[in-house]
């Protein structure tokens, strides 16, 4: 049984633990600061080109994603846990309806902790400019318009190009219903998150 003296210490430890769980927590302060204007410049994870990623996988889900200027190619993410092959998906302009992002982290001596972010209802979708996602698992019902497969990744016409000689694909427009995605990195030049709700809870409560 804890004593009155123990309780404050326990609460302090939990707060510190929550603050250092995952790089995604950095989103909270930036997003809250930008809510008043409705425009939030933010990166949801450290850019693979800027520094080593944590290597931890997290989930991104949406009822629907609609994007213009889609391009995709294969890359390798350098992380503190090792190197991982990923498919880079870049979208110049994207709207996401019913966005959910979650990461479950195991804290030694405490158990699983879930950070979960939701935003964007049907009438007010999340909007992203120059969205880049490094993904290793994606599912959904997709429609691509004006699509080209097998193009050299260095010649893609979207906002991001890959290495010369690597295979790539691009499309003028993409729609994905019931998006379910596992990723280690998400970044965007600008992210608008109407109806933002961020929670940190004990236990495993991922988006899907």
Please provide a written account of the structure.
The chain has helices at residues 6-19, 26-34, and strands at 58-79, 82-97, 99-107, 111-119, 126-152, 167-187, 190-192, 197-202. It has 208 residues and is mainly beta. Strands 1, 2, 3, 4, 5, 6, 7 and 8 form an 8-stranded antiparallel β-sheet that branches. A hairpin with a 3-residue loop joins strand 3 (99-107) and strand 4. The longest helix is centred in the N-terminal third of the chain and has 14 residues, at 6-19. The two termini are 36 Å apart. The model is unreliable at 2-50 (pLDDT under 50).
Q: Count the E strands.
A: 8
Give the uncertain stretches in residue-range form: 2-50
Give helix and strand order, one letter per element, not per position. HHEEEEEEEE
Count of helical segments? 2
Radius of gyration: 18 Å
Helix residue percentage: 10-25%
Main structural class: mainly beta
**How many angstroms does the end-to-end distance come to?**
36 Å
**Biggest sheet architecture:** 8 strands, antiparallel
Overall geometry: globular
Could you report the average pLDDT, rounded to the nearest whole number?
Answer: 80
Total tally of structural domains: 1
Strand content: over 45%
């Amino acid at each position: 049984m804890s004593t009155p003296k123990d309780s404050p210490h326990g609460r302090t430890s939990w707060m510190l633990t929550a603050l250092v769980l995952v790089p995604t927590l950095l989103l909270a302060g930036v997003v809250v600061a930008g809510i008043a204007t409705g425009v939030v410049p933010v990166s949801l994870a450290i850019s693979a080109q800027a520094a080593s990623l944590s290597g931890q996988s997290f989930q991104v889900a949406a009822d629907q994603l609609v994007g213009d200027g889609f391009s995709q190619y294969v890359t390798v993410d350098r992380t503190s846990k090792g190197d991982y092959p990923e498919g880079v998906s870049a979208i110049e302009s994207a709207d996401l309806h019913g966005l959910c992002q979650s990461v479950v982290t195991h804290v030694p001596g405490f158990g699983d902790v879930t950070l979960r972010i939701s935003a964007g209802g049907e009438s007010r979708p999340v909007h992203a400019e120059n969205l880049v996602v490094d993904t290793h698992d994606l599912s959904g019902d997709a429609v691509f318009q004006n699509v080209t497969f097998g193009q050299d990744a260095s010649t893609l016409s979207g906002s991001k190009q890959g290495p010369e000689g690597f295979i790539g694909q691009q499309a003028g427009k993409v729609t994905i219903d019931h998006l379910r995605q596992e990723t280690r990195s998400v970044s965007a030049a600008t992210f608008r998150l109407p109806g933002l709700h961020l929670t940190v809870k004990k236990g495993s409560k991922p988006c899907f």
